[in-house]
Design goal:
Layout lengths: L2 H11 L20 H14 L12 H8 L3 H13 L3 E4 L7 E4 L9
Antiparallel strand pairs: 1-2
Helix pairs in contact: 2-4, 3-4
Length: 110
Amino acid sequence: MTSESVSKDDDTAAGHTVNAPQGPSWKPVARSSTHELVINAIEEQITSGSLTVGDPLPSERDLAAKLQVSRAAVREALRVMESLGVVVSNVGSGKSAGTFIASMPKEALS
């Protein structure tokens, strides 16, 4: 130990506070998960007018390939959007099967 480190330790041990230099101030950063990026991509298509109420979305597989993300990310994005009432998903086969744009509520697209 150097005499400098001993004197700092002695000051702290004696109840004196040592003023440390101020470090940088950190602020939280925005994080985006992949499913949020998928939601943003779908919302962008809705707000641009490319998709309107009643329009079908591509299948999970096609949408994942087009956006270059996993199907799990697409699935999670669709679950979130369905809970917000933006899309509706129907299982089965035929014209009514698939995921469709249900509405465009402002609070869901903000």
